[in-house]
Predict the structure of GNAT family acetyltransferase.
Amino acid sequence: MIRSYEKTDLEEMVRIWYEASVIAHFFIPASFWASQKSTMKEKYLPLAENFIFEEEGQISGFISLVGEHVCALFIAPEMQGRGIGRALLEHAKTLKGKLSLKVYKENERAFHFYKKCGFVAASEEVDEYTGCVQILMEWEQVR
């Protein structure tokens, strides 16, 4: 089930974000992600509109939105490939008429996932924190 997040979810959300980030972003040192844990917990996640995918009391993943921008979509590594990311993204689409997000160019798996979900590449930029190229992707509801 998908539900709104509660403050008690933050620790698990950060764990999922960190573990999934290290695997998906193998081209960025794990130490970078480790250095961002407290900022994610204390600043970024609390400022976003967060939705949790939960099964049998266990958090499997989450999506974070700021307006129409998907700031985070992370699934616990052991739960990936089961449609959870797609379900969270579809939930966000029902809430918003259009969405945007950034994905690292080297994260080909995520880039192809978003393309399959109807997003199109709009532009590229270098991430100031990692020095890696990010692709801005956009989705808009067909009217």
